Amino acid sequence: LSGDARLSSHAERARLSFSATVEVRIPLVGGKMEKFIGNQLLNLLSTEQEFTTEWIRENR
């Protein structure tokens, strides 16, 4: 797993962008594992984004 996160300004807000590469070098199952790990990572980032947005909304 390798990745990159970038924080930038966008209008009067902040934007956090992610990119990642998942590579599993195991014959026959590597592709399935990559897809599973990638989906889990997307779910995690989405959940963190929702939590952070709600926290900011409640704590301004």
Provide an overview of this structure.
The chain has 60 residues and is of the alpha+beta class. It has one domain (2-58). The protein contains 1 helix and 2 strands; from the N terminus they run ββα. It is elongated, with a radius of gyration of 15 Å. The model has no long low-confidence stretch (mean pLDDT 95).
Q: Would you spell out the secondary-structure blueprint of this structure?
A:
Blueprint: E1 2-10, E2 13-21, H1 30-58
Antiparallel strand pairs: 1-2
Distance between the termini: 35 Å
- Class per helix and strand makeup: alpha+beta
The domain tally reads 1
Cross-sheet strand order for the largest sheet: 1-2
Fraction of residues in helix: 40-55%
How much is the average pLDDT?
95
Name its key features.
60 residues; alpha+beta; elongated
Summarize the structure.
The protein is of the alpha+beta class and 60 residues long. The protein is 48% helix and 30% strand.
